[in-house]
Amino acid sequence: YEGNPSLGDPMSITGQLSDSCQRIEKLRTELQRYQAMLDDVDGDGIGGGGAASGGPSTPNASLARHHSNVMSPHHHHNGGASPRSSVTSHR
Fold first, then answer.
1. What CA–CA distance (Å, rounded) separates 32 from 2?
2. Widest Cα–Cα separation across the chain
3. DSSP string, 29-64
4. Dihedral, CA atoms, 10, 16, 87, 90, nearest 10 degrees?
5. Rg (alpha carbons) of the chain, rounded to whole number
6. Which of 32, 38, 31 is nearest to 66 (CA)?
7. pLDDT, tens digit, for every residue of 55-82?
8. How far apart are CA 5 and CA 12, in angstroms?
9. Contact, 16 vs 24, CB < 8 A?
10. Does the predicted model carry a pTM greater than 0.90?
11. Is residue 62 within 8 Å of 38, Cβ to Cβ?
């Protein structure tokens, strides 16, 4: 970008980069907060995720379990329809 002036003024994106970095930090903070909340729920033994029930007891294991539930090909938020059915064509 800096080497090709036809792409625009590199100094004009400095503010955008700063804003993006601040937003990323805010999102990281939110992620940590939500991970702590998930750890608290998993640590209570609700849902069989605790070590006493033989389930995964590490935060990464619980996140992996949650991620696999969300990403399951049989789990759709649009009533079971194909994910492509909600995409509209822009012509």
1. 35
2. 62
3. HHHHHHHHHHHHHHHTTTTS-SGGGTS--SHHHHHH
4. -50
5. 21
6. 38
7. 545 555 555 555 544 444 444 444 444 4
8. 12
9. no
10. no
11. yes
**For tokens 């590199």, what's the residue?**
10
pLDDT, tens digit, 9 for 90 and up, residues 12-25: 888 889 999 999 99
Residue with tokens 């539930």: 69
Residue 12 to residues 5, 7, 29, 78, 87: CA-CA distances in angstroms?
12, 11, 28, 41, 34
Task: Give the helix/strand (H/E) hosting 28.
Answer: helix 14-43
The number of residues in the chain equals 91
Locate tokens 């002036």: which residue?
Answer: 5
Give the pLDDT of residue 91. Answer: 42
| Separation of alpha carbons 90 and 81, rounded Å | 21
Amino acid, res. 4: N
